Amino acid sequence: MSETHEGAERTEGAAGHVAFVGLGRMGLPMASQLVRAGVPTVGSDVGHAARDAFAAAGGAVADSAAAAVAGAATVILMLPDSGVVESVLGAPQVAAALRPGTTVVDMSSSEPARTRALAGQLAAAGVAMVDAPVSGGVARAVTGELAVMVGGQDADVARVEPLLKRFGTLFRSGGIGSGHAVKALNNLMSATHLLVTSEALLAGRRFGLDPARVLEIVNASSGRSGSTENKWPRFVLPGSYDSGFGLRLMLKDMRIAVALAEQVGLPSRLGADAVAVWARAAEELPADADHTEIARWLDEHAPPPAAA
């Protein structure tokens, strides 16, 4: 049974509504985009505070994923990983609520091979699946300017494309699982960029260079990247370390990408080395550490300057 809050439209069971499961740091602003666009949306989350926040944004809420899914034409998932996605969709109450003709859109950072296997299981029940992970962080989720990497069959993607466009710019990546593959590979590259950028800037600072000045020069040169143009200037130099994307989530995506490379017979040696460094940082930093804190961790673990 749905919980209803003041200002929230009750839409459970309405034909054609969207069920949005996972109202966390990314899911809440994304689901809110649908509400602002007038899309009947029922949100669900294991956290009461998350459900209350969605109700305050004008959304309808359900106290379980099964209640949100009941009668939905589209089910959007924004969950931590493949294991949680499989657990939610595999729950008997949710499986019973998924009617033939429903389209499931997994916007989580899931494992490509497991996504393909899950799509096959859903297809046997007459349920279509699209994978559509995103990049851009909380700030772009709030403004609706995410990059959405979309995998799936053309007809399935076409059905949900108007919804996905509410979140940002769509990039077709190929068949089912391809979006999750691109997302993982992108984050492996992003994390490796941030790691080497941090090492270089810390070395430059020890040499006596001003990191802000180095960034200005690099960003007009061939060494620039998202880390030099965005992460270091916005989150590292000011010391806020609050990009909104957790270090452990980044590490999870890196591991997915390295495993993918191994599966296709092309091991990622540099990627594996980067994973090892990020894993050590994850062991020592708080559980909720932002991924940009890798720069601070490197600084704190740097050996002392060599004697003159």
TrEMBL record:
Provide the alphabetized UniProt keywords: NAD, Oxidoreductase
Checking Gene3D superfamilies in the record gives: N-(1-d-carboxylethyl)-l-norvaline Dehydrogenase, domain 2, NAD(P)-binding Rossmann-like Domain
Transmembrane intervals: none
Query: Which is one GO molecular function term here?
Result: NAD binding
Domain called 3-hydroxyisobutyrate dehydrogenase-like NAD-binding: residue spans:
177-298
This one is known as 3-hydroxyisobutyrate dehydrogenase
Which top-rank group of organisms is this from? Bacteria
Q: Which family does it belong to?
A: Belongs to the HIBADH-related family.
Task: Please list the residues that make up the active site.
Answer: 183
The reply to whether Endoplasmic reticulum figures as a keyword in the UniProt entry is no
Claim: Isomerase is one of the keywords in the record:
no
Tell me which residues make up the 6-phosphogluconate dehydrogenase NADP-binding domain. 18-169
